């Protein structure tokens, strides 16, 4: 048993859902207890998707366990196939269904469904979300990728592999990378899984090579395509100016083109060289996330922002080797763990000035009072923004500069704080004032009742129970109400009379 | 016909008198499991900690629901079962003790620890009640350890609160003799509790206690003289256990809207023999204010049709309020579970001929909803945005569990929750 205050990844079937929900024409029948439909909210709320994810759950209950849960699964699979008419179906089990061992794959075979069925074996008590996504994508690619026929001559072509639904900034990264490839003169053959149909997977081999954006998701499938069909793949993930330059060189060499055709067009290098950034030099930063984002962030910190990387870690055990290598380059030991408490301990011990991490590191940073920015999943709704916010390519580097510098105290304030430590407003530990909420150490002055009406103690107490962000309005309305009626004392009754009176 | 596609059958035989026919369906249920109750219970009982014993899925559910808040000190966690526990290579009880010890070291301020059962722990039959007893002995008197199940196979959404409160009932001290008291059962917002306290004081009903209490160490007493009012409709098991300890339930509709609140208060007033004049004097101003506040939203709501997907068991009282006080027209009222005895007073107030459904086949219910084209659809967050994208106006139902909606002073706010999506749709020009 493992104590998890927070978990960095969901169970593997959530990874499978991400692949299914990314694609068109794929439906996933998941053997799962009532309640596991919570996962739909990840897509409809966190990602704000406008349609239900293509997942049918059997949602068995305790009373079903005494009976035939296998029949329940078969009915659900048959009904889903009839109702949604997918091009292909995924079938599998969630953690609880794994315990009752109904074998969804075998059951689906006996149904003789009119579409290809890809069974998923996702061991929920060993593996996690990214592995589930990678395995699902690999199974789909294995099932549908076909050898390339003769193809007409034209520009070199590449597939973009790895972007999924619920991926951290995958939507905008794809746009950026497509732009980079276009600028080089490389045509995009298939983007998958995001936006692809099974028929598109059948065309994967029409490309000359694969661009692997997210090895956590596409690593297994890309390795298969290389092994089986001899398709080369990129190894550099274009996060940061330097990595984007390296990526362009790598793609150019795979495509037999000249990388010099694409100019570096990021503002990060100038912003970082401008004198306002001098105070960033040597800021101690702790980096944690999935391996791809953590390794890339550490390079940007050290080479492009002039920070000192004091900690580098990841929850992606599949990429332990790459992470250790990267950490060595920064002269530190890699932290490989999915235990939130271990990460907290490491941060507390290192006392960095900035934490670059996941949603979970925001909890640690809040507890320890350290500025923090998010660089990797898991993330929450605020990190699926409406605006264009890639992490990759040259625009991605612009986004990184703004996002990572923002939580730090600005230069002038930092200087003044060093000189004058007893200021009542800009106190040590009060936090950067440009973030607005840093001055909480000083309670805001309560307005003195201006009108003739006085607040009875009971009413005043009641007022404090109103959430602070609407309290001021409630106070003003009540006082106005009392004044208009010539009341001398504001009682509880007055408070609520006013509330009823002013309610829209 | 397949098990998932069982034909809808009226349940007239099982129903009490006055219960309209109920459409019973089985199929995919788009609902939360009882673990979700932790999201509000951890705020209500401030010195309690909720440790789910389950899988990574359970942990993921909790943090997806509550993780958008940034916690300096989380008040819930999951002991994730791994393959060593399943293979019997590790003694699950030793493992649990180790995890709890680590947790207690980190959080010495916790006074009550709930071991919360999940689907995996129920399926492998891990005996958490014995574990709770063992750990209680070990950490006494500093910490009390209790157990309940929030598993999806046994509980739906708010039933998690029922299971939690039911676990508290045996811990409640015994009321000496037959001392008389009123117990209000169900987690309420603090401001609502205080309003009810004042109303009961004005009526001369009391002493009044609340379950759950705000602190784990302040559980109310219970005994033969205890009469209780349910403030929430999903408390079947809690009520049963209170009755087993000699308490008696006062039958009433639920305190939503002016009508529900008055009837709910009246049930207590009658039990305490409060004179009608005193009752009218005490509740009159509140009831009038509630009517004023609701009337201001009525224009938006009257004549509009409303469709409820099952979620929390609050659907029937809410439909009653929207129908009788706001003039809405219910098309279908879905509920995950219908407790006929506790809902009897509510059912009697529903308009004749309304469609009630218990359980769910979500695809067919969506077909019915699309065919009916209701003006407002009350549903969970898994359906809300997809339905909005199809042109339906929705009210996400979970908010009704997180918002103060009970009592007179909140009646206007309650109506506002339903009016706002309609106002918004009318207002937006993009």
From TrEMBL, chain A:
GO MF terms, alphabetically ordered: 4 iron, 4 sulfur cluster binding; ATP binding; metal ion binding; oxidoreductase activity, acting on iron-sulfur proteins as donors; oxidoreductase activity, acting on the CH-CH group of donors, iron-sulfur protein as acceptor
EC number(s) reported in the record: 1.3.7.7
Transmembrane intervals: none
Pathway(s) annotated for this protein in UniProt: Porphyrin-containing compound metabolism; bacteriochlorophyll biosynthesis (light-independent)
InterPro entries: ChlB/BchB/BchZ, LI-POR_suB-like_C, Nase/OxRdtase_comp1, P-CP_red_C, Protochl_reductB, Protochlorophyllide_Rdtase
Pfam family membership, one: Oxidored_nitro
Active site: 276 (proton donor)
Domain Nitrogenase/oxidoreductase component: 12-408
Keywords: 4Fe-4S, ATP-binding, Bacteriochlorophyll biosynthesis, Chlorophyll biosynthesis, Iron, Iron-sulfur, Metal-binding, Nucleotide-binding, Oxidoreductase, Photosynthesis
Gene3D superfamilies: 1.20.89.20, Nitrogenase molybdenum iron protein domain (3.40.50.1980), Proto-chlorophyllide reductase 57 kD subunit B (1.10.8.550)
Reactions the enzyme catalyzes: chlorophyllide a + oxidized 2[4Fe-4S]-[ferredoxin] + 2 ADP + 2 phosphate = protochlorophyllide a + reduced 2[4Fe-4S]-[ferredoxin] + 2 ATP + 2 H2O
4Fe-4S as UniProt keyword: yes
Residues annotated as binding substrate: 411-412
One biological process term in Gene Ontology: light-independent bacteriochlorophyll biosynthetic process
Binding site for [4Fe-4S] cluster: 36
Cofactor stoichiometry and binding remark: Binds 1 [4Fe-4S] cluster per heterodimer. The cluster is bound at the heterodimer interface by residues from both subunits.
Domain Light-independent protochlorophyllide reductase subunit B-like C-terminal: 455-499
Top EC class for this record: oxidoreductase
Summary of the function given for this chain in its UniProt record: Component of the dark-operative protochlorophyllide reductase (DPOR) that uses Mg-ATP and reduced ferredoxin to reduce ring D of protochlorophyllide (Pchlide) to form chlorophyllide a (Chlide). This reaction is light-independent. The NB-protein (BchN-BchB) is the catalytic component of the complex.
Sequence similarity: Belongs to the ChlB/BchB/BchZ family.
Subunit structure: Protochlorophyllide reductase is composed of three subunits; BchL, BchN and BchB. Forms a heterotetramer of two BchB and two BchN subunits.
NCBIfam families: DPOR_BchB
Protein name from the UniProt record: Light-independent protochlorophyllide reductase subunit B
Source organism of this protein record: Neoroseomonas alkaliterrae
Encoding gene, per UniProt annotation: bchB
TrEMBL record, chain B:
Assembly notes: Protochlorophyllide reductase is composed of three subunits; BchL, BchN and BchB. Forms a heterotetramer of two BchB and two BchN subunits.
Similarity comment text for this entry: Belongs to the BchN/ChlN family.
Name used for this protein in its record: Light-independent protochlorophyllide reductase subunit N
Record's keyword terms, sorted: 4Fe-4S, ATP-binding, Bacteriochlorophyll biosynthesis, Chlorophyll biosynthesis, Iron, Iron-sulfur, Metal-binding, Nucleotide-binding, Oxidoreductase, Photosynthesis
InterPro entries assigned: LIPOR_BchN/ChlN, Nase/OxRdtase_comp1, Protochl_reductN
Enzyme class: oxidoreductase
Cofactor mode of binding and number, as noted: Binds 1 [4Fe-4S] cluster per heterodimer. The cluster is bound at the heterodimer interface by residues from both subunits.
Catalytic activity: chlorophyllide a + oxidized 2[4Fe-4S]-[ferredoxin] + 2 ADP + 2 phosphate = protochlorophyllide a + reduced 2[4Fe-4S]-[ferredoxin] + 2 ATP + 2 H2O
Organism of origin: Neoroseomonas alkaliterrae
PANTHER family the record matches: LIGHT-INDEPENDENT PROTOCHLOROPHYLLIDE REDUCTASE SUBUNIT N (PTHR39429)
Domain Nitrogenase/oxidoreductase component: 33-419
């Amino acid at each position: 048993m493992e104590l998890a205050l927070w978990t960095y990844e969901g169970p593997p079937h959530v990874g499978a859902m991400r692949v299914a929900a990314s694609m068109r024409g794929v439906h996933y029948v998941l053997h799962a207890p009532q309640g596991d439909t919570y996962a739909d909210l990840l897509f409809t709320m966190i990602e704000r998707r406008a349609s239900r994810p293509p997942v049918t759950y059997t949602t068995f209950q305790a009373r079903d366990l005494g009976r035939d849960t296998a029949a329940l699964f078969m009915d659900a699979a048959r009904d889903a196939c009839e109702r949604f008419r997918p091009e292909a179906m995924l079938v599998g089990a969630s953690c609880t269904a794994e315990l009752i061992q109904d074998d969804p794959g075998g059951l689906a075979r006996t149904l003789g469904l009119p579409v290809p069925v890809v069974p998923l074996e996702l061991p929920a008590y060993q593996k996690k979300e990214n592995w589930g996504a990678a395995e699902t994508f690999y199974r789909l690619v294995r099932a549908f990728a076909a050898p390339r026929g003769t193809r007409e001559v034209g520009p070199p072509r590449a597939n973009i592999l790895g972007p999924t639904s619920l991926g951290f900034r995958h939507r905008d990264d794809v746009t950026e990378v497509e732009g980079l490839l276009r600028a080089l003169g490389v045509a995009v053959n298939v983007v998958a899984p995001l936006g692809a149909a099974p028929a598109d997977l059948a065309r994967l081999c029409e490309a000359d090579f694969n661009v692997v954006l997210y090895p956590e998701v596409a690593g297994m499938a890309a390795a298969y395509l290389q092994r089986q069909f001899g398709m080369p793949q990129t190894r550099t993930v274009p996060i940061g100016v330097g990595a984007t330059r390296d990526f362009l060189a790598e793609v150019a060499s795979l495509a037999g083109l000249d990388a010099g055709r694409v100019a570096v067009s990021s503002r990060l290098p100038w912003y970082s060289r401008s004198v306002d950034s001098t105070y960033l030099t040597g800021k101690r930063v702790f980096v944690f996330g999935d391996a791809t984002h953590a390794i890339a962030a550490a390079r940007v910190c050290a080479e492009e922002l002039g920070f000192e990387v004091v900690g580098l870690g990841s929850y992606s055990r599949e990429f332990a080797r790459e992470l250790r290598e990267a950490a060595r380059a920064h002269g530190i030991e890699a932290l490989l763990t999915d235990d939130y408490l271990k990460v907290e301990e490491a941060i507390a011990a290192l006392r960095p000035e900035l934490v670059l991490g996941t949603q979970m590191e925001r909890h640690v940073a809040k507890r320890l009072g350290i500025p923090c920015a998010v660089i990797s999943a898991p993330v929450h709704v605020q990190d699926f923004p409406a605006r264009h916010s890639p992490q990759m390519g040259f625009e991605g580097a612009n986004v990184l500069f703004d996002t990572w510098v923002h939580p730090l105290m600005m230069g002038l304030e930092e200087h003044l704080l060093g000189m004058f430590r007893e200021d009542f407003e800009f106190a040590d530990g009060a936090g950067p004032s440009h973030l607005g909420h840093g001055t909480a150490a000083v309670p805001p002055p309560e307005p003195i009742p201006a009108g003739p009406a006085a607040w009875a103690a009971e009413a005043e107490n009641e007022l404090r129970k109103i959430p602070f962000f609407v309290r001021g309005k409630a106070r003003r309305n009540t006082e106005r109400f009392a004044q208009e009626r010539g009341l001398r004392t504001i009682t509880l009754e007055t408070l609520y009379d006013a509330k009823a009176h002013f309610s829209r | 016909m397949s098990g998932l596609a069982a034909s809808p059958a009226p349940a007239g035989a099982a129903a009490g008198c006055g219960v309209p026919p109920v459409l019973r369906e089985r199929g995919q249920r788009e609902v939360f499991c009882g673990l979700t109750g932790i999201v509000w219970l951890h705020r209500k009982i401030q010195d309690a900690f909720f440790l789910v014993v389950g899988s990574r899925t359970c942990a993921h559910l909790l943090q997806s629901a509550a993780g958008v808040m940034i916690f300096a000190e989380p008040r819930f966690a999951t002991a994730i079962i791994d393959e060593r526990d399943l293979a019997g290579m590790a003694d699950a009880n030793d493992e649990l003790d180790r995890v709890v010890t680590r947790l207690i070291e980190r959080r010495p301020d916790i006074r009550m620890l709930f071991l919360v059962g999940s689907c995996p722990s129920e399926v492998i039959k891990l005996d958490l009640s014995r574990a709770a007893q063992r750990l209680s002995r070990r950490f006494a008197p500093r910490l009390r350890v209790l157990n309940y199940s929030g598993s999806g196979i046994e509980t739906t959404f708010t039933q998690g609160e029922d299971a939690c409160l039911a676990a508290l009932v045996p811990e409640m001290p015994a009321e000496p003799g037959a001392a008389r008291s009123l117990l209000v059962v169900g987690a309420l917002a603090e401001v609502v509790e205080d309003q009810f306290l004042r109303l009961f004081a004005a009526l001369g009903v009391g002493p009044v206690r609340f379950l759950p209490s705000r602190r784990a160490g302040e559980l109310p007493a219970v005994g033969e003289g205890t009469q209780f009012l349910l403030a929430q409709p999903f408390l079947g098991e809690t009520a049963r256990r209170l009755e087993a300890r000699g308490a008696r339930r006062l039958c009433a509709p639920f305190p939503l809207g002016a009508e529900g609140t008055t009837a709910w208060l009246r049930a207590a007033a009658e039990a305490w023999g409060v004179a009608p004049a005193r009752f009218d004097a005490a509740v009159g101003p509140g009831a009038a204010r509630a009517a004023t506040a609701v009337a201001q939203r009525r224009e938006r709501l009257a004549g509009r049709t409303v469709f409820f997907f099952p979620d929390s068991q609050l659907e029937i009282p809410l439909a009653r309020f929207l129908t009788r006080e706001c003039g809405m027209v219910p098309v279908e009222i879905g509920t995950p579970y219908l407790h006929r005895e506790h809902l009897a007073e509510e059912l009697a107030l529903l308009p004749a001929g309304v469609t009630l459904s218990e359980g769910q086949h979500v695809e067919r219910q969506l077909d019915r909803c699309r065919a009916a084209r209701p003006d407002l659809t009350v549903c969970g967050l898994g359906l809300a945005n997809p339905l909005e994208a199809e042109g339906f106006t929705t009210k996400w139902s979970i908010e009704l569990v997180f918002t103060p909606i009970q009592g007179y002073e909140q009646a206007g706010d309650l109506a506002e929750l339903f009016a706002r999506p309609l106002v918004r749709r009318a207002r937006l020009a993009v």
